[in-house]
Write a structure and sequence with these properties.
The complex is a heterodimer.
Chain A: E1 2-11, H1 16-26, E2 33-38, E3 44-53, H2 55-67, E4 71-76, E5 82-93, H3 99-108, E6 112-116, E7 120-127, H4 129-139, E8 144-149, E9 153-156, H5 161-165
Antiparallel strand pairs in A: 1-3, 1-4, 2-3, 5-7, 5-8, 5-9, 6-7
Chain B: H1 29-39, E1 44-47, H2 54-60, E2 66-69, H3 73-87, E3 91-95, H4 99-113, E4 118-124, H5 140-144, E5 150-153, H6 160-172, E6 178-184, H7 185-189, H8 213-225, E7 229-233, H9 235-239, H10 243-253, E8 257-259, E9 276-279, H11 286-294, E10 297-301, H12 307-310, E11 321-326, E12 340-343, H13 346-353, H14 363-375, H15 390-400, E13 406-409, H16 413-421, E14 430-431, H17 442-452, E15 458-463, H18 464-470, H19 474-479, E16 484-490, H20 495-504, H21 519-525, E17 529-533, H22 539-548, E18 553-558
Parallel strand pairs in B: 1-2, 1-3, 3-4, 4-6, 5-6, 7-8, 7-10, 8-9, 10-11, 11-12, 13-14, 13-15, 15-16, 16-18, 17-18
Helix pairs in contact in B: 1-2, 1-6, 3-4, 3-17, 10-13, 15-16, 15-22
């Protein structure tokens, strides 16, 4: 099992999201998160889909995404270095006397307090999924009243540019499904009668 | 209407466009649709009318396109599919919204599973009514998304020419498939702006035709080095028109060829009988399955390692390296891990590979295959006096049509016997629902084939269960006097279901018995010819009479009711672990 981040450029048309989500559902692929947004060109939207599973499944996801007519470009970002960000708004139970400790915590994570109520504060945090999840764990003892996350968006780093302008690197070969047998080995499957 | 301004005032002066010779009169959406259909070379449309598609039908009233009205939208879809399979052209079907479109979904799914080029145009309620649960409204784009290669709802008449062109382009290129265009009623009526741009806009759709030369060289080297190669050929060879190249490849390299159900006819089983292993898989020949299992190199061309072909995956072709040539990258390494993938059109790849292929003697391999062929031919036990074995009917049909008819089938035992006992000689000769396994497919598909290829005999070899699912189309066959012939192997069972219940469910025959009408009388009631055959001695004359009848004819052949299809690879078994049914 490994986590893969697919960056998918799609034509900005009605039904594209349903098509992609439907393909995942119909083929039993898992979606950890899916983010859609506009790009600098109104004709295209950008999706970032996070999924996890074995290599064969990930390879199929990439190919099946490519098969959808309205997808323009697919990259598996886990094959390259990229910046990934998730944004979270979290409302934590917090009586006024504990605001100080929460503010310290917020500073350590470079988060910011965006709303304060009589018995709660709302904190905004961006970062990788790991960082966000670590912060959520630290908030848990206070009592989480509400939590909302955008899901991951990701863009490859500049140092990668040359690579991904060329043809995609061949994916690692998935493990053999069939029993591998070589001529030197004792054959696992008997030959048909001669 | 006010005259249009010459140019937008702010627009910079433009050179005069090329196509401004005469100003085009304003066209409605429906007119633009039919314009593009004509431009795409559509010669026949199959369909059924209804409220939401009436404006389009009104334009078709005077269009120079033949219209075949089916009696159910499913039939129209299968007719378009049969037409497409027989001719290689894109089949076109036009139906109405809601129930018209949902009836069509089975035909779309059938075409999608077998990669058949089709364009379906469905009426839709007016754009203002969409989402309001209007009369005969259904979310057709939503319903058909998983069973089409592409589908689209058109909301603006200006988009129509582009969308229809894209639909035909997508349907026929790459791995072909059905494309659906959902057309609201108001869009059909609305006047499009003059000179709306009909250029295709498919930035992400670039099917790969030419194979990677390095992969092709690797494949050729593996082929030249192999001692026991087998070509495993599927429908991709038919759809890309690669059967000539395939034959050259098999001859030049001296490689035996086995075909899938959809690949039948890719190689001439009579002329190239020395190379042909016939069908492989669950009900394939023993020699094809043995050859695959014993091979050291399996060359899959336009085939997708379906579970009915591979049997138990873990022990499929256990000694073989695998080359996979396919236009659809997602087919590669989906079910079976592939050693040398080549993404590209079968014909183009084989053409590029041919010069690199060297002749090899492979005498021991061909001797082994000859022994298997001699020992395990397709065969059946002789019937008791007078009664009719279903396999015998196919053999007689094959003989009396000189192996030259186009054959369609339903789904079940009769389909497998047709594949086994008819001798396939040319591509597009066998028309059958392989992937989806749609009972009732054979008869309407045969009608579509009749229209596409009027100069050849078209025979639907059908089962009683299958035929009853779409026999309402007898009315269509009678109306258009189509020279379609139906041979029903009538065993009064859903035969394949009965066979599985016999073998795997202790003969507990749950809902598989068929209480049938007299099919000959049914045919006559529809205005077709009916023939009833109960004695094997009457069979040759009956077939001759059927072949000589000009109009639609149904021949009801009462066959041995409890005959089973063998060889059979049970689910979960390896390909070489066949039940021979006492045949060997």
């Amino acid at each position: 099992m490994s986590k893969h981040i697919f960056s998918v450029l799609v034509q900005n048309q009605p039904g594209v999201l349903a098509h992609i989500a439907g393909m995942f559902a119909a083929r039993g692929f898992n979606i950890d998160s899916l983010v859609v947004g506009r790009t600098e060109d109104p004709a295209f939207s950008h999706m970032v889909i996070v999924s996890s599973g074995d290599d064969v499944t990930m390879e199929q996801i990439r190919k099946q995404l490519g098969k959808i007519v309205t997808t323009v470009k697919i990259r598996d970002l886990s094959e390259q270095k990229c910046v990934e960000r998730d944004l979270m708004l979290i409302r934590v139970h917090c009586p006024p006397e504990r605001r100080g400790e929460l503010r310290d915590l917020t500073e350590v994570f470079r988060a910011s307090i965006v709303d304060v109520g009589p018995s709660s504060v709302m904190i905004q945090l961006t970062g990788t999924e790991d960082k966000i999840e670590a912060f959520v764990e630290l908030c848990r003892p206070y009592g989480i009243k509400q939590l909302s996350r955008t899901g991951v968006i990701a863009v490859p780093r500049a140092s990668q540019e040359r690579e991904h302008d060329g043809p995609p690197a061949p994916a690692a070969r998935p493990p053999r499904v069939r029993q591998a047998t070589t001529s030197s080995q004792e054959t696992a499957v008997p030959l048909p009668p001669s | 209407m006010a005259a249009k301004p010459q140019a937008a005032p702010s627009a910079p002066p433009q050179p005069v466009a090329t196509s401004t010779a005469t100003p085009q009169p304003a066209r409605t959406g429906a007119q633009l649709l039919v314009d593009v259909l004509l431009e795409e070379g559509v010669e026949v449309i199959f369909g059924f009318s209804g409220g939401a598609i009436l404006p389009t039908f009104d334009v078709l009233y005077e269009a120079p396109i033949r219209f075949i009205m089916s009696r159910c939208e499913q039939g129209a879809g299968h007719m378009a599919d049969g037409y497409a399979r027989a001719t290689g052209k894109v089949g076109t079907v036009v139906v109405t919204s809601g129930p018209g479109a949902t009836n069509l979904t089975t035909a779309l799914a059938t075409a999608y599973m077998d990669s058949i080029p089709m364009v379906a145009i469905t009426g839709q309620v007016a754009t203002a009514a969409i989402g309001n649960d209007a009369f005969q409204e259904a979310d057709v784009v939503g319903v058909t998304r998983p069973v089409t290669k592409h589908n689209v709802l058109v909301k603006n008449a200006d988009d129509l020419p582009r969308v229809i062109r894209e639909a035909y382009h997508i349907a026929r290129t790459g791995r072909p498939g059905p494309v659906l265009v959902d057309l609201p009623k108001d869009v059909q009526v609305k006047t499009a702006s003059a000179g709306c741009n009909g250029e295709m806009n498919l930035p992400g759709y670039r099917p790969r035709v030419k194979g990677n030369s390095r992969q092709i060289r690797l494949a050729a080297e593996a082929i030249n080095a192999s001692e026991r190669p087998v070509l495993y050929v599927g429908g991709g060879v038919i759809s890309s028109g690669a059967s000539a190249e395939l034959r050259q490849m098999a001859r030049k390299g001296n490689i035996p060829v086995t075909t899938t159900l959809l690949g039948m006819g890719a190689i001439d089983e009579v002329q190239d009988a020395d190379l042909a292993l016939n069908m492989l898989g669950m009900h394939g020949s023993a020699y094809a399955n043995f050859a695959v299992q014993a091979s050291d190199l399996l060359i899959a061309v336009g085939a997708r390692f379906d579970d009915r072909v591979t049997g138990k995956l873990e022990t499929f072709a256990p000694h073989a390296r695998i080359i996979h040539i396919d236009v659809d990258p997602s087919s590669i390494s989906k079910n079976v891990d592939v050693d040398i993938p080549v993404v590209g059109d079968a014909r183009s790849v084989l053409q590029d590979m041919l010069p690199l292929i060297e002749y090899r003697d492979r005498a021991a391999w061909f001797e082994q295959i000859a022994r298997w062929k001699a020992q395990y031919p397709f065969q059946y036990q002789q019937a008791p006096e007078g009664t009719i074995k279903p396999q015998h009917v196919i053999r007689e049909l094959s003989r009396l049509t000189d192996n030259d008819a186009i054959i369609t089938t339903g789904v079940g035992q009769h389909q497998m016997w047709a594949a086994q006992f008819y001798r396939w000689r040319f591509p597009r000769q066998m028309i059958t629902s392989g992937g989806l396994g749609t009972m009732g497919y054979g008869f309407p598909a045969a009608m579509g084939a009749c229209i596409g290829v009027p100069d050849r005999q078209v025979i639907d070899i059908d089962g009683d269960g299958s035929f009853l699912m779409t026999c309402n189309e007898l009315a269509t066959a009678a109306e258009y006097r189509l020279p379609v012939r139906v041979v029903i192997l009538n065993n009064h069972w859903q035969g394949m279901v009965r066979q599985w219940q016999e073998l795997f469910f202790g003969r507990r025959y749950m809902a598989s018995r068929m209480v049938n009408p007299s099919f000959a009388k049914v045919a006559e009631a529809f205005g077709c010819t009916g023939i009833d055959v109960r004695d094997v001695r009457d069979l040759p004359d009956a077939i001759a009479r059927m072949l000589a009848t000009p109009g639609p004819v149904v021949m009801d052949v009462h066959v041995e009711p409890e005959e089973n299809v063998y060889p059979m690879v049970a689910v979960g078994k390896s390909l070489h672990e066949m039940e021979m049914g006492g045949m060997a």
